[in-house]
User: Which sequence fits this backbone?
């Protein structure tokens, strides 16, 4: 009777992988999928910026509120940097430390201001969106996404995998949009 050879295989999120050194082809494949994801994120960010620029050009009130929101976002970013510095100075991450407590209070206050501004800006944003040609923006976005998914633009990533990466990206984008909308409603 012939002896059966045995080997161990572990299954990860990205498929079955034999124990031992990960094959170079597998690493290249994951790298290409990750590069496509990063390209899709870049396309998405560019699309958001284009929408916002056109809204600001179309509606003066939105432009003013948008500028105010940008300034507030920068203050929040700076406050988080100050919190990191406070943690280093206090040599602690405990929120009971006076420096960290003050930084947290500042962040909470700024976030409350941002939430209040969001409630002001939301109807104005909707109005400004009606003034722009969203179909052209959406078509440009979709064209860039389709181009990014083509095999010659992904370094040879197969179409099935490129479509799966896009499906996951689209799902993540929808979840983030839903979270953002829920945050605005609170």
Assistant:
């Amino acid at each position: 009777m012939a002896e059966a050879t045995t080997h161990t295989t572990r299954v990860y999120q990205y498929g079955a992988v034999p124990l031992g050194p990960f094959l170079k082809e597998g690493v290249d494949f994951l790298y290409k999928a990750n590069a496509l994801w990063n390209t899709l994120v870049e396309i998405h960010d560019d699309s958001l910026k284009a929408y916002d620029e056109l809204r600001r050009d179309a509606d003066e009130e939105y432009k003013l509120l948008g500028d105010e929101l940008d300034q507030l976002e920068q203050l929040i970013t700076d406050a988080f940097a100050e919190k990191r510095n406070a943690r280093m100075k206090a040599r602690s991450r405990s929120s009971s430390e006076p420096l960290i407590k003050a930084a947290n209070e500042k962040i909470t206050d700024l976030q409350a201001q941002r939430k209040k501004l969001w409630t002001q800006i939301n109807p104005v944003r909707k109005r400004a969106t009606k003034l722009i040609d969203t179909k052209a923006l959406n078509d440009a976005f979709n064209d860039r996404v389709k181009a990014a998914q083509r095999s010659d633009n992904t370094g040879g990533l197969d179409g099935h995998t490129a479509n799966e990466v896009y499906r996951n990206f689209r799902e993540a984008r929808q979840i983030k949009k839903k979270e953002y909308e829920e945050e605005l409603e609170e």
